[in-house]
Amino acid sequence: xxxxxxxxxxxxxxxxxxxxxxxxxxxxxxxxxxxxxxxxxxxxxxxxxxxxxxxxxxxxxxxxxxxxxxxxxxxxxxxxxxxxxxxxxxxxxxxxxxxxxxxxxxxxxxxxxxxxxxxxxxxxxxxxxxx
Length: 131
Prior knowledge:
Radius of gyration: 14 Å
Mean pLDDT: 95
Oligomer: single chain
Number of domains: 1
Largest sheet: 6 strands, mixed
Helix content: 25-40%
Strand content: over 45%
Order of helices and strands: HHEEHEEEE
Number of strands: 6
CATH architecture: Roll
Distance between the termini: 43 Å
Shape: globular
Low-confidence stretches: none
Number of helices: 3
């Protein structure tokens, strides 16, 4: 893998993190779920011991949520490219809902390069401060 390919993979994976936050805030659930590989796994920060397996189940989980207004702020994104088809990443997360104190946590991600481009293989959220 060349330096240029590594940097491109880092940028693509970092873009997934930002796109995930923006689409989530806009309640564009089909597009959020499409950021996962077909067999991707999601662990919500508020339910870190309850994995949701597969793109269709992830979509159903998002669609079952009550409507709310949110703003996710992600920062301190660090992507590690492990090969041409695999990468990992960590980012800090701050979630504002307007109804309660902000949630502060992080995401630990695994990425996979698919025919659709880079996708989340696993997105594991956790809370730094309990609500």
